């Protein structure tokens, strides 16, 4: 996602202290203490402007939600939306997902969401896709043994690539959908991209996966 640089974006983000965690690495292994409870932790990697994570936090006050993104301006939009919501079970962090093992301890996350990740369509960039096996290996470390990854995209090529990666690693797959909005998905919260693409008639692909 190409985002226009905004002067002072990081300073504005850092000022939203109740929702933005400026140094997430210092909380590795202690994220429940950040929320002040022992509720499960669900994380969205590459979270866009925060509509999904705030929507999920509103629907599920019994869950702690973390949204991570590498783009300051995007994280700022999400933090602003979180602040407007007044919810206490959502936090925003800023970091490169290649360093996820520096942020979360082994088995610290109960679920991971990958929503409308950058498809990196050029073949030489396949290792940058968030469903590439290198990333998946790290997710396996930070997820609990029975933790699931929920993946949504509008990009058929990325979905096919991802299914092949999941199969190569012998992941358990369930709820595979080639057109999500034609099904009765009661707990679905749409992202900004999802609303845009589905309103234009594009199918939304979705699957849930778990390591054996």
Description:
- 31% of the residues lie in helices and 23% in strands.
- It is α/β, with parallel strands linked by helices and 212 residues long.
- The chain has an eight-stranded mixed sheet with strand order 1-4-3-2-5-6-8-7, with helices on both faces.
- Strand 2, helix 3 and strand 3 (64-69) form a beta-alpha-beta unit.
- It starts with 8 loop residues before the first helix and ends with a strand.
Strand arrangement within the widest β-sheet reads 1-4-3-2-5-6-8-7
In DSSP terms (H or I, runs of 4 or more residues), the helix count works out at 7
Report helical residue fraction: 25-40%
| SSE arrangement, N to C | HEHEHEHEEHEHEHE
The quaternary organization reads as single chain
Task: Characterize the main sheet.
Answer: 8 strands, mixed
Structural class: alpha/beta
The average pLDDT is: 93
Strand content: 15-25%
Number of strands: 8
Which terms summarize this structure?
single chain, alpha/beta, eight-stranded mixed β-sheet, globular
List the SSEs and their pairings.
Elements: H1 9-14, E1 20-21, H2 31-35, E2 41-45, H3 51-59, E3 64-69, H4 72-85, E4 90-94, E5 109-115, H5 133-142, E6 143-153, H6 156-168, E7 172-177, H7 192-199, E8 205-210
Parallel strand pairs: 1-4, 2-3, 2-5, 3-4, 5-6
Antiparallel strand pairs: 6-8, 7-8
Helix pairs in contact: 3-4
Brief overview:
The protein is 31% helix and 23% strand. The protein is α/β, with parallel strands linked by helices and 212 residues long. An eight-stranded mixed beta sheet has the order 1-4-3-2-5-6-8-7, sandwiched between helices.
């Amino acid at each position: 996602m190409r985002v226009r640089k905004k002067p002072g974006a990081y300073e504005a983000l850092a000022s939203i202290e109740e929702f933005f965690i400026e140094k997430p690495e210092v909380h590795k292994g202690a994220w429940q203490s950040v929320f002040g409870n022992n509720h499960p932790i669900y994380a969205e990697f590459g979270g866009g402007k925060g509509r999904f994570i705030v929507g999920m936090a509103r629907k599920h006050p019994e869950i702690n939600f973390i949204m991570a993104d590498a783009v300051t301006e995007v994280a700022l939009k999400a933090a602003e939306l979180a602040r407007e919501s007044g919810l206490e079970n959502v936090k925003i962090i800023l970091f490169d997902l290649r360093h996820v093992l520096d942020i979360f301890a082994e088995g610290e996350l109960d679920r991971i969401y990958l929503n409308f990740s950058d498809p990196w369509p050029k073949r030489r960039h396949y290792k940058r896709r968030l469903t590439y096996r290198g990333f998946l290996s790290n997710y396996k470390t930070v997820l609990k043994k029975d933790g699931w990854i929920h993946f949504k995209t509008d990009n058929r090529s990325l979905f096919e690539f991802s299914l092949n990666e999941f199969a190569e690693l012998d992941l358990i797959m369930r709820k595979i959908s080639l057109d999500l909005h034609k099904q009765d998905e009661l707990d679905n919260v749409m992202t900004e991209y999802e609303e845009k693409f589905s309103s234009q008639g594009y199918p939304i692909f979705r699957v849930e996966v778990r390591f054996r």
